[in-house]
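Write out this protein's structure.
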Amino acid sequence: MARPRTPLLDRERIGATGLQLLAEQGEFSVPQIARALGVQTGSLYHHVDGRAGVIELIRERVCALIDGGALAAEPWDGALEAWARSYRAAFAAYPRAIPLLMTTPVRAPAVLAQYEQAVALLLRAGFPAERVMPLLTGLENLVLGSALDLAAPDAMWEPTPQTPLLARALAATPGPGRAEAAFEVGLAAFLAHARTLRGGGGGGNAGAAEAEAEAEAEAG
């Protein structure tokens, strides 16, 4: 029997099928992926390290939609803002993936490479090393929470006669676009606070230069 020109199974198809199942039903299992691809469950383990491996393939597919090139731009705050907007758009396309990907450790090399770029951006900008990960985690929480919010109804509150102030505030809110307006407020506040942390706490550009020298030495 002639072998099929296109392999029945590879990492690309496994990741795509896992993401499709996750987008449709909010969950997936390795046997479900195998059935969808018309293969035995054991066959998948020749390509991925079980469920954890599939999660990283899904993460890679979603994060491939993020514009990592934005992190190479200047100034640092404009680069971080552009990356945040692209990050949000990528996950807004797959909101059901957010709870799973937010609660599992990141191992995918391509995704780690983007975070390496983000860390380098902040170190070059003069942020002390000890403030870099809290900043990135805070930005990630803002972005992913907002991506989930985009999947929610625009009207999230149903005021009653006992909540007249809430009713007044809702009536004063101009038109639709609640999630967009909230994201703009949050992102502006995040960037404003980040600017106050830059260069404080004793790491500064010296810490950035040292970190980059270490990275270059390891790469070499």
